Amino acid sequence: MNLLDMKLWKLTAVGAIALMGVVGCSNDHLIRTEDGQLIESDEKPEIDDDTGMIEYEDEQGYENQMKQSEVKEIIER
């Protein structure tokens, strides 16, 4: 293996590790509702202690709430 091949291999390995780090930091969640809708949330939805409703931030950055009974599942991607 010559010097150029060795540098290319190292660069590829470092790039792959960096890419895995970025992908690993992704925190998108999908909320599947009882009526079949899929809602994307940038952060993990949480239950509001005062109202008992599920709070989430949508793709546009708006805070939203929905009844727990309307949520079928929450999927982390």
Strand content: 25-35%
Widest β-sheet, arrangement of strands: 2-1-6
What's the total helix number? 1
Helix content: 25-40%
Rg from C-alpha positions?
Answer: 20 Å
Give the uncertain stretches in residue-range form: none
N- to C-terminal distance: 39 Å
Class computed from helices, strands and strand pairing: alpha+beta
H and E order:
HEEEEEE
The chain-level mean pLDDT equals 81
- Major sheet details: 3 strands, antiparallel
Overall outline:
elongated
Number of beta strands? 6
What does this structure look like?
- With 77 residues, the protein is of the alpha+beta class.
- 29% of the residues lie in helices and 32% in strands.
- The protein is built from one helix and six strands; from the N terminus they run H-E-E-E-E-E-E.
- The chain has a three-stranded antiparallel β-sheet with strand order 2-1-6, with no helix packed on it. A three-stranded antiparallel β-sheet has the order 3-4-5, with no helix packed on it.
- The longest helix is centred in the N-terminal third of the chain and has 22 residues, at 3-24.
- The protein is elongated, with a radius of gyration of 20 Å.
- The model has no long low-confidence stretch (mean pLDDT 81).
